[in-house]
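Sequence only, no structure available. Ideas?
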Amino acid sequence: QVQPVESGGGLVQAGDSLRLSCAVAGGTFSNYAMGWFRQAPGKEREFVGRISRSGNYTNYGDSVKGRFTISRDNAKNTVWLQMSSLEPEDIAVYYCGAARYWGNFEYWGQGTQVTVSS
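Reply:
I predicted one. Tokens follow.
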């Protein structure tokens, strides 16, 4: 069992960048693929991106391709979401999830709020 904890959210202006962090406590971090999801007010949870256990593979949702990048450091038990060219459409609570098996996210953080002013 692992417990992700997100941080780094905040208020930025449109066009700015922001990096979210997810520190993972508990079991063997390298056994888990990691994912980022977001949920805007009144909308369903949206897939942002994921990264494999080794960090060698990533994929992203269409709405963030070319702007967001996921990375991880297994020695630090941390995964990051680097966000660029932020727009008001990116306003949401961002969640970090851990998957022991690919595609099955069992463990979630509390979320961190990202707000973008236009």
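The chain has a mean pLDDT of 97.
Hope that gets you unstuck.
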